UniProtKB/TrEMBL annotation:
Name of the protein described by the UniProt record: Cysteine synthase 2
Bias (Basic and acidic residues): 19-28
Pfam families, alphabetized: PALP
Keywords, ordered alphabetically: Membrane, Mitochondrion, Mitochondrion outer membrane, Pyridoxal phosphate, Transferase, Transmembrane, Transmembrane helix
Highest taxon listed in the record's lineage: Eukaryota
Originating organism: Aaosphaeria arxii CBS 175.79
Subcellular location: Mitochondrion outer membrane
Catalysed reaction equations from the record: O-acetyl-L-serine + hydrogen sulfide = L-cysteine + acetate
A Gene Ontology BP annotation from the UniProt entry: cysteine biosynthetic process from serine
Cellular-component GO terms for this entry: mitochondrial outer membrane
Broad class of the protein's primary localization: mitochondrion
Enzyme class per UniProt: transferase
Amino acid sequence: TQQWSSSPSRKSRNRQRPNVKDHEGSAEHDGIKEGIEGCIGNTPLIKIKSLSEATGCEILAKAEFLNGAGNSPKDRVALSIIQMAEADGLLTPHSGDTVYEGTVGSTGISLAAICRARGYKAHICMPDDMAIEKSDLLLKLGAEVERVRPAPIVDQKQFVNLARSRALEHTADPNKRGSGLFADQFETEANWKAHYAGTGPEIYDQTDGNLDAFVSGAGTGGTISGVALFLKEKLPGLKVVLADPPGSGLYNRVKFGVMFNTKEKEGTRRRHQVDTIVEGIGINRVTQNFEVGRELIDDAVKVTDDQAIKMARWLVEHDGIFCGSSSAVNCVAATTLAKQLGPGHRIVTLLCDSGARHLSKFWANKEVGGSEDDVSLESVLQP
Ligand code: PMP
């Protein structure tokens, strides 16, 4: 009470002229977030009512599109990469240093937003067949964007290789300040560790450790590995299932231990590129981030473009959820698994990003946005 009785003069002073310093450290406590970085993580776990009712399982989805910087799970990864680089002295906040990355979009958008907030530049290399709104958004966020023809990973002009060589050029140029960081989301441990430290524990807490399966697609593999590594330590009986789009080699890697079936000739387009309307998941090489959790993946479900398209429509029609293509693939795989496991199980998956990021491509498909007819769940589950 003594404290309170001696404080009115300070309180009234603050009321006249708020002193920001007085409030430092109390922001989180007051429900105020410290910039966009403070809005990353702690995403809600949503029960998808229509899919739960239809299957008799509880199908829960982590609403990763509600991450508050770049609106995808990549916010966690981008922040983790930048924080680890700062801790290692590779980046200095507000130095104007450049962060380089090869990305199909989401990681670039998260990096670009966080770079703005922390005083860095972002240089993003991406394939030119991704939805145009992603590169538009990157430009508006102030990133430098190089859109390149999709190419095999062995090609120097492939988007990840290009980003790596741009970072090296930066370091070699005496006129450029700072080190120039190659973010390297496919290989860096900062990626899976962000999900091991965030997404995994959040799912465990939000379900009180009461879940039977976790379902996720993989691009870099950071999400599925990080979450599986955390959850399987706590729940050894948990089933971890990969959701894989057409043309990706990961399904074969999980099911049969090989990336390619012998009929696929080396050097063909299929061997290097994922042939699907889905963006962000599916890949034809084993990255470090996939490898670190690979042995924890129990099964894989192949999802066709047609199934993803129908699921996206189903989720809008029944739940008002307007999601992107990888989220739709996750939901098809989660529902397929629910049918396999039978009623009474609890399955967790991810809603990665919003349909707004896919308007010109995935959602421009006539099958997705065009028809008035209701989609049946049977047709969604029919490969
Ligand atoms: N969904 C979207 C929209 C993505 O951009 C990505 C990452 N490329 C993923 C899912 C897959 O996540 P991860 O890289 O952790 O495997």
